[in-house]
Write a structure and sequence with these properties.
The protein has 264 residues and is α+β, with helices and mostly antiparallel strands. 30% of the residues lie in helices and 18% in strands. It has eight helices and ten strands. Helix 4 packs across helix 7. The chain starts with a helix and ends with a helix.
Length: 264
């Protein structure tokens, strides 16, 4: 792990402690919370190869460090807590206007949950097809829940107002858009003039509870990591995760599965 960070011209971390540490990757400044135990866990989980790092959630694009997937003992407790929740209706999230939304309001609906981004190569096709699917099936019981996420490649950097305007004006999105997924566990960085990292929100030690639940209920080692923007989770009328689709699966390719759940 230390060798990997040194190769990124990062002056970080042979003596890392439980605190925020600043470093540089290429021409981007970032912040990362490094815990000594996390480094040890990372060696165990991903080894020293770059392929292992990509496999376990280190997202590197254009010189950007944007993911951290090590697992500390406390994280196992977080995943265990999420796993004890039986349906998605046990969660409350904040919408794009920062108002609490209990997901129990969607009982009896089929849900398609997507982590979205405004500056991704997948943005245009996904937003267009999501709007198409929503307009076609919203009166039959479909809800699409979009969670803006800046974790992958810094591709959702805007404010909530900017995200809302982008989705609703350019793509005429009418489905619910929520606050950038965040975790109450995530410490706030010190006030500095250094460029800040994206929120660690769908992967890593600060994963939002809703995404802990989605991942832990869709199989895979430690719930499996979200791979990139526009990964999709399909939830049935009983609040159970029934299918998961990679970012490259388009919304229209999921239409047949949506129709099947709506008819059930």
């Amino acid at each position: 792990m230390e060798e990997f960070l040194r190769n990124m011209s990062c002056p970080l971390l042979t003596e890392a402690r439980d605190k925020w540490t600043w470093g540089r990757a290429g021409n981007r400044v970032f912040e990362v919370r490094i815990i000594k135990q996390q480094l040890q866990a990372s060696r165990h989980l991903v080894g020293s190869s770059s392929s292992g790092l990509f496999q376990h959630g280190f997202a590197l694009k254009a010189g950007i460090f944007s993911g951290f997937s090590s697992v500390s003992p406390s994280e196992f407790g977080v995943f265990a807590t999420a796993a004890t929740r039986k349906t998605i209706y046990d969660f409350t999230v904040k919408d794009i206007d920062r108002k609490d939304v209990p997901l129990s309001k969607f009982k009896g609906k089929v849900l398609l949950i997507v982590n979205v981004a405004s500056q991704c190569g997948l943005t245009s096709s996904n937003y267009s097809e999501l709007s198409q699917i929503y307009n076609k099936y919203k009166n039959q019981g479909l809800e699409i829940l979009a969670f803006p996420c800046n974790q992958f490649g810094f591709q959702e950097p805007g404010s909530n107002d900017q995200i809302k305007k982008f989705a609703c004006t350019r793509f005429k999105a009418e489905f619910p858009i929520f606050d950038k997924v965040d975790s109450d566990l995530q410490p706030k960085p010190p006030q500095t003039n250094v460029i800040s990292t994206p929120q660690i929100d769908v992967n890593g030690p600060f994963t939002a509870p809703i995404y802990q639940f989605l991942k832990s209920n869709s199989g895979g080692f430690l719930g499996d990591l979200v791979k990139w923007n526009f990964e999709k989770f399909l939830v049935d009328k009983n609040g159970k995760v029934v299918e998961r689709y990679p970012p490259t699966t388009s919304p229209l390719q999921i239409e047949k599965d949506i129709k099947k759940l709506l008819a059930a």
